[in-house]
């Protein structure tokens, strides 16, 4: 007979969603719990407002996710408005505290990215600038959250073949300061300050057959081979999952790319899943559009789940009402590309993810 004392019972109940419009018993098993059956996580980008202690938002993020990722609060420009100013950690501290209260693990996003910089950082260009501004930023943030963050997107979007550099690197202030070495330096600084964290390179536009995506895959693999070969502490690769129904998915190409990452000894995460619909999507019924978005996500996630290196899947928001895609341009204002709709009801994408997680036959060893 299984006997539970009061303490174990409270501990066991702590992870259950708060009672909402649906009773806890009627609620389906969360995606985080389903992903955990094969040793993986499911998570979402969150904002500090999403996870403030009230409302439908936090209930959904609590019920569905085992991992949260701050959507913008940890970016350099969110912490430091103007170059040289003191960082403001209030929003990030609030997310860290909310995650601790609800037993969520946190991915950190992101330490080095060319967007969302402090005012004045666009002009940084020398090694001295790196030492004065960038190195202390990386050390401070990773050090402050060394016990709170289990995975970091250390460098985000380093590759851009269209920028014309022979090594396919994106030309950014970081590249101007240290050249290619900025990536290795960023990983070393993060590893020194947060030795237990798993450190990821994170990049986008890697799933499809188009030539421009092939060049991006080449750039990513070359950079990772170089880092791993030099003994830099890089542990994983994050594939932003900003999918697009207008592009051509080729399963063989994607499997080969995953295999190359595995051969480098890296773990793999799908870090920012959502689906951009075709511009003519408005002509179809919402139900048909949602089915199409679900099928697009299903193609990528089902292949990725065949890799034991896959640690987890994170969507970039849960509900379309909060999707960053909708704010990007007027023709995306009603984009349907996330696992919950505007009213926080599950969409076909949620069903697809749930059944793929539940049926995964290739566990990630934890
Ligand atoms: C987006 C956030 O969702 C927005 O709130 C913010 O205004 C801009 O950045 N790739 C990334 C993410 O790596 O950090 C971006 O997040 C989306 C694209």
Automatic annotation (TrEMBL):
Keywords: Carbohydrate metabolism, Glycosidase, Hydrolase, Polysaccharide degradation, Signal, Xylan degradation. Transmembrane segments: none annotated. Its EC number is 3.2.1.8. The keyword Hydrolase applies. It comes from the Bacteria. One of its GO terms (molecular function) is endo-1,4-beta-xylanase activity. It comes from uncultured Pleomorphomonas sp. The active site is at 272 (nucleophile). Belongs to the glycosyl hydrolase 10 (cellulase F) family. PROSITE patterns: GH10_1 (PS00591), GH10_2 (PS51760), TAT (PS51318). It catalyses: Endohydrolysis of (1->4)-beta-D-xylosidic linkages in xylans. This is Beta-xylanase. One of its GO terms (biological process) is xylan catabolic process. Gene3D superfamilies: Glycosidases.
């Amino acid at each position: 007979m299984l006997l539970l004392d009061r303490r174990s019972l409270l501990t066991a109940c702590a992870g259950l969603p708060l009672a909402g419009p649906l009773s806890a018993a009627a609620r389906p098993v969360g995606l985080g719990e389903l992903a955990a059956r094969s040793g993986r996580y499911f998570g979402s980008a969150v904002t500090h407002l999403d996870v403030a202690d009230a409302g439908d938002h936090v209930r959904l993020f609590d019920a569905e996710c085992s991992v949260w990722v701050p959507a913008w609060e940890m970016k350099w420009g969110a912490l430091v408005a103007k170059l040289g100013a003191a960082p403001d950690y209030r929003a990030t501290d609030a997310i860290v505290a909310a995650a601790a209260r609800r037993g969520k693990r946190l991915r950190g996003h992101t330490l080095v990215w060319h967007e969302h910089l402090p005012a004045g950082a666009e002009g940084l260009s020398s090694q001295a600038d790196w030492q004065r501004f960038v190195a202390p930023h990386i050390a401070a943030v990773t050090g402050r959250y060394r016990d709170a963050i289990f995975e970091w997107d250390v460098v985000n979007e380093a590759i851009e073949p269209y920028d014309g550099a022979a090594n396919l690197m994106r030309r950014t202030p970081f590249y101007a300061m240290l050249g290619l070495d900025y990536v290795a330096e960023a990983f070393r600084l993060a590893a020194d300050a947060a030795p237990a964290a798993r450190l990821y390179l994170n990049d986008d536009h890697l799933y499809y057959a188009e030539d421009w995506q092939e060049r991006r895959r080449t750039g990513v693999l070359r950079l990772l081979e170089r880092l791993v070969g030099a003994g830099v502490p890089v542990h994983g690769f994050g594939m932003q999952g900003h999918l697009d129904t207008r592009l051509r998915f080729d399963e063989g190409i994607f499997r080969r790319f995953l295999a190359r990452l595995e051969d480098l000894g890296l773990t793999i995460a799908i870090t920012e899943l959502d689906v951009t619909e075709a511009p003519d999507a408005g002509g179809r019924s919402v139900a048909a559009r949602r089915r199409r978005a679900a099928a697009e996500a299903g193609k990528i996630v089902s292949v990725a789940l065949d890799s034991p290196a896959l640690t987890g899947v994170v969507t970039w928001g849960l509900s379309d009402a909060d999707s960053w895609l909708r704010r990007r341009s007027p023709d995306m204002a009603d984009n349907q590309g996330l696992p919950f709709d505007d009213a926080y009801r599950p969409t076909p994408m949620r069903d697809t993810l749930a059944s793929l997680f539940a049926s995964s036959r290739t566990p990630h060893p934890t």
